[in-house]
Amino acid sequence: MLNYTHISRAAQGFSMLEVLIAIVITAFGLLGVAGLLSQMQISETESFDRSQAMTLLWNMNERVYAAMPTTATTANAYTNGGTMVTVGTGNSTYTSPCTGTYAALDLCEWNFALQGAAETRAGASVGAMTGARGCVELIAAPNAAACTPATFRVSVVWQGLTDSVNQTTNPNTCGKDQYGSEKRRRIVSEVITIGIPKCT
Fold first, then answer.
1. Local structure of 148: helix, strand or coil
2. Mean pLDDT per segment of 10 residues, for the chain of length 200 residues?
3. Which pTM value belongs to this model?
4. Are the CB atoms for 69 and 103 separated by under 8 Å?
5. DSSP states along 39-104
6. Do 162 and 42 contact (CB within 8 A), yes or no?
7. Contact 99, 105 (CB under 8 A)
8. Residue 14, φ and ψ in degrees, nearest 5
9. Of 167, 89, 170, which Cα lies nearest the Cα of 132?
10. End-to-end CA gap in the chain
11. Of 160, 158, 163, 152, whose CA–CA distance to 188 is shortest?
12. What are the residue ranges spanned by the domains of the chain?
């Protein structure tokens, strides 16, 4: 005589359908984690680029402060006699090693720092942000007769990895239209005032 034993569903194990559903859910979860890790990598790179940009910005600010350009001649030297000078990516004006005095030397060394000369890989400069450029803009020349100091705007711009705020209407034109989309142009800048010249 045959004796059949009833096995409850809980004791039967998983069916192939249940296993397949579990695999699909796990796959979607792993894809979500991969996407999150990718976004974290982008955010980390953007943050690192911004910290580099701030360091380069402060570097030039300190150079201008140290030179104390309190005459029109010394102030104009930081913009090569124009309203604004741009150095860094795409600039081939300067040669290494840098020579000259105060403004010329400062701009030359800043140019190579923005081009990433501090770190090289396979002969290429890689020590700065993508497309890093720096601008020194003379907002107001020093005027001894009016007792007004020199005012500069120093800016560092670079190309971000993702779209951000549209910079099209930003009055700061440093690096404008150099990165394809103005949503990729990242800017850090500071307006600095250099002492009051001796009044006449």
1. strand
2. 56 72 85 78 86 94 90 89 92 90 93 88 80 95 84 95 88 93 94 78
3. 0.79
4. yes
5. HHHHHHHHHHHHHHHHHHHHHHHHHHHHH---SHHHHHHTTTTSSEEEEETT--S--SSP-SSHHH
6. yes
7. yes
8. -90, 145
9. 89
10. 124
11. 158
12. 47-194
Measure the CA–CA gap between 154 and 59, rounded to whole angstroms. Answer: 10
Distance from C-alpha of 8 to C-alpha of 30, rounded to nearest angstrom: 33
CA 195 – CA 199 distance, rounded (Å): 12
Task: Return the closest-CA partner of residue 56 out of 113, 118, 116, 125.
Answer: 113
Contact 143, 127 (CB under 8 A): no
Alpha-carbon distance 124 to 177, whole Å? 25
Give CA–CA dist 95/69, Å, rounded: 24
**Separation of alpha carbons 143 and 198, rounded Å:** 9
Which residue do the tokens 């192939």 mark? 16
Instruction: State residue 144's pLDDT score.
Output: 79
Helix and strand tally (H, E) in the chain?
3, 6
Distance CA 152, CA 139 (A): 5
The residue among 196, 155, 148 whose CA lies nearest residue 172 is 155
